[in-house]
Write a structure and sequence with these properties.
Distance between the termini: 40 Å
Number of helices: 0
Structural class: mainly beta
Largest sheet: 7 strands, mixed
Radius of gyration: 13 Å
Strand content: over 45%
Shape: globular
Number of strands: 11
Helix content: under 10%
Length: 116
C-alpha cells in the first residue's frame, strides 16, 4: 500500500505560480509518480509524470508543457509540480498518482483555482 498526501494548492491570479507537493509513504517501490487533474464536468486528465529511479525521465501534457515542471526529491520520497503562468483553464482538483508494479495509487486531491 502506498499513501500519498498532497499539499500546496490554493487560489492564485492568472499569470501567477503555485507549487504542489506529494509525499509518498508505505515502503513499496514506486517506479513512476505523476499528477492528474479534473475540472468540474470533465474527465480526469494526465498532467505530468516522472520515472524513477533511473534518470528521472519526464512527460507532460501538451497544455502544460513549458509552464509546468515535475521533479522528485528521492530523500523525502516527494514529487513536486511547479506551475507557472497559470491560466483559468488550469483550475481543477489536482491528484497525485504513484505507480508500482501492480497498481496505481491516488492521493486525495487538492484544489487549484486560478482567478482572472
Amino acid at each position: 500500500q502506498v499513501h500519498l498526501v498532497e499539499s500546496g494548492g490554493g487560489s492564485v491570479q492568472a499569470g501567477g505560480s503555485l507549487r504542489l507537493s506529494c509525499a509518498a509513504s508505505g515502503g513499496i517501490s514506486v517506479h513512476r509518480m505523476g499528477w492528474f487533474r479534473q475540472a468540474p464536468g470533465t474527465e480526469r486528465e494526465f498532467v505530468a509524470s516522472i520515472i524513477s529511479p533511473g534518470g528521472g525521465s519526464t512527460s507532460y501534457a501538451a497544455s502544460v508543457k513549458g509552464r509546468f515542471t515535475i521533479s522528485r526529491e528521492y530523500a523525502k520520497n516527494t514529487v513536486y509540480l511547479q506551475m507557472n503562468n497559470l491560466n483559468l483553464e488550469d483550475t481543477a482538483v489536482y491528484y497525485c498518482a504513484a505507480d508500482t508494479t501492480g497498481a496505481r495509487y491516488w492521493g486525495q486531491g487538492i484544489q487549484v483555482t486560478v482567478a482572472s
